[in-house]
């Protein structure tokens, strides 16, 4: 491994020197700053393992048969890694005398919660430019729209997300909540997940117990029938598949039998039990301009909650619902800023209703 220290009066200058000397595979090991002649002076230690070059060539040869989507996914991961390194350098070299001790403590807490380097850098930049309070700026970065308020109102709600995240449970919890609030309502549960038989049986079983209408849509024929029935129901909740490897939501949605459901709201269901890297993968996999909100499940199984802030910040999709626990009652909360801040800063789970 070749290790070398580079110096300069700006991060751009230092990074150019690193790239010119060690190449694109260089890794940043340490960054320090000091004042020299009244100017900030940067000192960066970087390294590169030349023994990896042959291994890289071998891997590149084996990638010739790799699909375009696999290549895009791999480069996406590498770009995120590189971006995190850049943000780390920027954060470490920012001059922060304008922060109060309470703000410094809050930022350290957010870092421990795993909000991501880019979130912290953007927060610091906004704090420097604005005279608003810390929580006001944090609120601007993370949109929250309570479930049922505009623009999330609608007759049909479609839930998307990875396998096992809790889409089916969310649908049942919401259907029961809506029935309690509207006893005479006509509710329909729709299953479009043809991959998971267990989820299908679970949804159908509770639909029968709770006197909800139930539909299974496997193709265009069943989709057309459902479209003709939409006017019969006050509320429709749709369960979708988690999507296999190599397929993203855009690909599935383009050929989906429910794509023509007019005015449908699509909600991405995620859980803070996933690592930030996994969350980034799912945000990329399920990215779609039709998404309306983020729904968070399994809060009781997570130990940190920074990915909730990170996801809302990166997508600018509002957080709408919180859920935890295996029971269908008393385990669903409409999102609000007080509930969110208590969860992030105090690890206090929401009060459900």
Structure described in brief:
This protein has 13 helices and 11 strands. By secondary structure, it is an alpha/beta fold. α3 (68-93) packs across α5 (117-129) and α11 (276-285) packs parallel to α12 (306-315).
Task: Write up what this structure looks like.
There is one protein chain. By secondary structure, this protein is of the alpha/beta class. Helices cover 44% and strands 19% of the residues. The strands form two sheets. The protein has an eight-stranded mixed β-sheet, with helices on both faces. A hairpin with an 8-residue loop joins strand 10 (319-323) and strand 11. Helix 3 crosses helix 5 and helix 11 (276-285) runs parallel beside helix 12 (306-315).
Defining traits:
353 residues; alpha/beta; Dodecin subunit-like; Rossmann fold; 2 domains; 13 helices; elongated
Structural class: alpha/beta
Mean pLDDT: 84
Distance between the termini: 58 Å
How many distinct beta strands? 11
Low-confidence stretches: none
Topology, element by element:
Blueprint: E1 2-8, H1 11-22, E2 27-36, E3 39-48, H2 52-62, H3 68-93, H4 101-112, H5 117-129, H6 134-141, E4 156-160, H7 167-181, E5 187-191, H8 197-209, E6 213-216, H9 220-229, E7 235-239, H10 249-254, E8 265-270, H11 276-285, E9 291-296, H12 306-315, E10 319-323, E11 332-334, H13 337-346
Parallel strand pairs: 4-7, 4-8, 5-6, 5-7, 8-9, 9-10
Antiparallel strand pairs: 1-3, 2-3, 10-11
